[in-house]
Amino acid sequence: MEESTAAPGLTPAKGLIVLLGVVVGVAAYLAIGGALGITPLYAGFAFSLYFGGLKHSDPKEFPPSLVGSLGGIGMAAALHILPEQFGTPGMVVALIGILLAIYALLMGWVPILVNYAFMLMLTIATIPAVKAEAAFLGMAGSVLLAAALLGALLLAGSRAARKAQATASAA
Question: What does pTM read for this prediction?
């Protein structure tokens, strides 16, 4: 089966306009992240890809995408910090937490927190090279920055659509 990423009704000219918007958005994200000293920024890109690409920027998917992403980073931090601080008992507690999260995902419990965004960020943050950085606060900051920028775009787009609809209805 072939995966299609083309947006319905997107002409080549509109595609170039969207591409320009993406370039401006990424540049803004990098500039703001740099100005705020947020590192690493890859977690925000992963959040943006998850929410924008996999969840199609559906506003109702925004809260679980954000909360799940932050929860996954938090679980990865626990997996890093608890064994460091408490040795084997800390590792056992962290692993039980991960098992409970997997069970909750399978059962569909607490979907605002335990969802595929949670698992994506948990996976990324436990990659050995990433885990070695132990930059969990920076990862969370980059997700929050990306969420703020995407949220602002969603809000602006929603307002523009309502305004266009009102204008069309008045005509």
Answer: 0.90
Which conformational region is residue 37 in: left (phi greater than 0), alpha (psi within -120 to 50 degrees), or beta? left
Residue keyed to tokens 């408490």 = 86
Q: Are 75 and 122 in contact (CB under 8 A)?
A: yes
Which SS3 state, helix, strand or coil, does residue 60 take? helix
Distance CA 171, CA 152 (A): 29
The pLDDT profile of the chain, 171 residues, written as one tens digit per residue, is 566 666 677 899 988 988 998 999 999 999 999 999 999 999 999 999 999 999 999 999 999 999 999 999 999 999 999 999 999 999 999 999 999 999 999 999 999 999 999 999 999 999 999 999 999 999 999 999 999 999 999 998 889 888 888 888 887
Q: Which residues of 1-28 are buried (b: 16+ CB within 10 A; e: fewer)?
A: eeeeeeeeeeeeeeeeeeeeeeeebeee
C-beta of residue 139 within 8 angstroms of C-beta of residue 43? yes
Question: Is 86:93 a contact under the CB 8 Å cutoff?
Answer: yes
